[in-house]
Amino acid sequence: MPTVFYELMFIGFAVMMGMSLSASFLPLLASSLDPSGLLVGLVVSAWFLSRIFLELPAGIISDRIGRRRLLIFGIGISALGPLLCSQARNIYVLILGRAVWGMGTAFYFMNNMAMLMDILPRNVRGRTLGIFQGIEFVGSFIGAPIGAFLALYLTYNQVFYVTLAMTLASLAIALRSGNLRGAEDPKTARPKTPIREIFSSLRDWGIAALCGSTFLRMMIMQGVFQTVFQLYLNQSLLLPVTHIGVVLSFRIAGQIVSLFMAGILSDRLGRRPVLIAGFVTCGLSLLGFTMAGNFNTLLALGFVEGIGEGFGITTLIALLSDIAPPSIRGGAIGLYRTFQDIGGFAGPVIFMLVYTVFGAMSAFYLGASLNLINIVLMVTFRTRPTDGY
To answer: What does the domain layout of the chain look like in residue ranges?
Structure first.
């Protein structure tokens, strides 16, 4: 792999670790600022609200002017998010901070993924993406428990200063990287693919099914595991924030293991079988949480659910890159990520409503049902024999 691959991987590791520092306590912080609980889901959803409107334009612009400048711009804007969150004394400032943070990550993650698609050979794309995202999720694995323990000695708001420092370090690396600059040839004319061609790609049911699948997957991930899950563990099972951080870390550990496996398996066995296996695992794990009676069981279920989740993280985007023509790759990834962001925005609000009205068990049952729909989506479109899946 070229040197820029490893630099991007290190930047991604630092960004993901910084983001995950607040994972174990963010819903608890939001709940303390809004005891009614009405806006707690919106704190998580705000991350995706601005991204819904930015992912597709960012992808189209990226295809025209290049990935590097928008990637750096995204990291710079991302630094404002934890800064605002660190000053939040009411829930509206916290929501604003999350929204600004999400806006920056829209530019960063979209262009990061598009640049990887540009430089990775197709025959090893799945396994290399698995390694790349596995290292990123090692950052999340480390960040969740560190953030939980930092919260014992600092206030919740002060933990965001650590995130700010890590984001600024990532920005410095991106700005100084000559390899990142050299990954693009400024003299090469970029295609001016009509916008209508990008939107017309949704007429391909395979791409539409992948967009729908990432929408549902993100609804579950953000609605359950970034919102309802922490409240359930704390309020129903009476776990302290440090124990919640450990459970989340076990889930991320499962994701790391499966990310490394998923890329290799999807290159050898095909993308679709790996995706179906992941959705089955996630659905059964969600049902398992409704019957978990002790801490060790929660750890085991978290690890297994993470394995199922990891199968989808890499394989869905690898399958999309197999389908989308190179001339509209940035726009196609932007379109895919737009559906992902809509799911991320809708999930916390919908699942918090279900949690508040019907209880935690209903939220887990809903998540399991959405995984079943994802399995159906994966078997409803035809693939070309030459695509290798």
So the answer is: 3-184+195-383
